[in-house]
C-alpha cells in the first residue's frame, strides 16, 4: 500500500550560519508538527528526503528549523527547495480538521442544494480557503465559521452559507 503524505510547510530559504531552514508554515498545528525529534519529508519532484528535527524556533511568522546531519549553512544548502511533508498516518485527527480532509467533499448550501465539489485547499492571508468547482465556475470560500456551517468528512459533505456573488 502506498504511503500518503500531507504538506505542512514549504522550504523558502536559509537563515544564519548554523544551518536553519526558513519554513513557511502551512499547518494549523505547527506546535504539534514541528517538534525536536519529529520526522519531516522534503519533497521535490518525486523524491522524498527524510529529515529529523534538531531544533525549532519562530521568527517573523516563519519556523526556523535545524535538522540532524545538516549542522551548518553549507550542509543545508545541499538540500533542494520544496514542500515539507508528514506521513498521513502520523497525523492525529482529534486535532481538528486538516486541509487534506476538505478535498473532494461535496458542498451544499443551507437549503440542502448541492453547489459543487472542493477541488483543493488554498492558503489565505488570514485563514484557509477552499476552491469549489460549481456547475458554472470555480469559487473560493473562506474556511471560517461564518461560511462553513457543518463538516462531515466521513461522508465527504460540507454545508456552507452560500451568498449570491460566490
SS field, number of helical segments? 3
Low confidence ranges: none
- Content of β-strand: over 45%
Q: Major sheet: size, sense and barrel closure?
A: 6 strands, antiparallel, barrel
Rounded Rg: 18 Å
Helical fraction equals under 10%
Q: Please trace the helix and strand order, writing H or E for each element.
A: EEHEEEHEHEEEEEE
Number of separate strands: 12
Structural class: mainly beta
How much is the average pLDDT?
85
Shape: elongated
Any descriptors?
166 residues; mainly beta; six-stranded antiparallel beta barrel; 7% helix
Give a structural overview.
- With about 170 residues, the chain is mostly beta strands.
- The protein has helices spanning about 30-35, 75, 100; strands at about 5-15, 20-25, 40-45, 45-60, 60-65, 85, 105-110, 115-125, 130-135, 140, 150, 155-160.
- The strands form two sheets. It has a six-stranded antiparallel β-barrel. The chain has a six-stranded mixed sheet with strand order 10-9-8-7-12-11.
- The radius of gyration is 18 Å and the shape is elongated.
What is this entry, summarized?
With 166 residues, this protein is mainly beta.
Architecture blueprint of SSEs:
Layout: E1 5-15, E2 20-25, H1 30-33, E3 39-44, E4 47-59, E5 62-67, H2 73-76, E6 83-87, H3 99-102, E7 106-108, E8 114-123, E9 128-133, E10 138-142, E11 148-152, E12 157-160
Parallel strand pairs: 7-12
Antiparallel strand pairs: 1-2, 1-6, 2-5, 3-4, 3-6, 4-5, 7-8, 8-9, 9-10, 11-12
